[in-house]
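Morning F.,

Quick status update on the modeling queue. The single chain you submitted on Monday has been processed. Sequence for confirmation:
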Amino acid sequence: GERFTQANEMARQAIYTITGGPQAWVVWVGVAAAEQDLPTALDRAKQARAKFPDDPAVRLRLADIERARGDYAASDTELKSLIADDSTDGPAYESLITSLLERLHHPGAAGARQVLTDAVTWLNRLVQAVPDSVYGNVTTATLYTQVGRGQEAEAMLRRLLAQQPDQTDVLLGLARVLDREGKTDEAIATLQRGLGDQPGPDVTAALAALYRGHGRAKDALALTARMMREHAWLPGYALADAAERWEEGRHEDAVAALHEAAAHFPRSQEVALRLAQRETDLGQAAAGIAAWRQYMHVNGETPERNYELAHFYSSAGHDDEAVATLQ
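Structure tokens below.
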């Protein structure tokens, strides 16, 4: 569309100006990737790699594009080279490990045992090189619980949480480990303390899920409703409350809550998208399209938003409108 063309031209011009350093090239690659034009994104990433062979951001972007195209060998080679150059390059480790773990879920994945072994090996290297890595410790703990090493996982995350008490991902990871190990009361207490120390929609949703999963659905809904009232200026709490209503099977209630949130937060893309998705889930495709179009009317078009609109059209069986939206 016109907006994409403008963004592409602005990025293209930037790389030829005095400000056209590696970051401008990364943005130019990203414009093509956002348009799902992976061949163009790859060509640009390779040009950037040749121009800035030592820039970590450029090399990481190239690896990510190769991974998106399914060329795992090339992506892995680039990421391992980055790590060889800087053994503390956390983003390179994370991209490599995430890529390996993703492959375990591919249908008919070959060599799954070896892929898992490789992921664990790189996780160990990450934790040794960057001992306080949140990603490394939480991911390692998650794998430990899956192979019966829950006590080690718990100890690891308790140590990290003591060092980084504001890290929500560590708090949530510890609660998951405790619950999986059958220590549900401790998991709930951990999140309750966390909610007092560092309230947030993610902690609220996690605690509500624990309540619901252990027969305390009323407590779950009471929690999300209270947190939404106490943080009425933040859309994340409204989303957590609507999500809890949906999970409890109160689908129409959830959609009504999302309509109210969309009116209260007209610039929240996440609220609008969730509303459109839930309307579609209930078989109200026209209402879902209308909700998303209203958001776009207020906030404007972007390639990403047009893709979402095309998806909603396609889900409703309006293939012609979906195609027209993407042109």
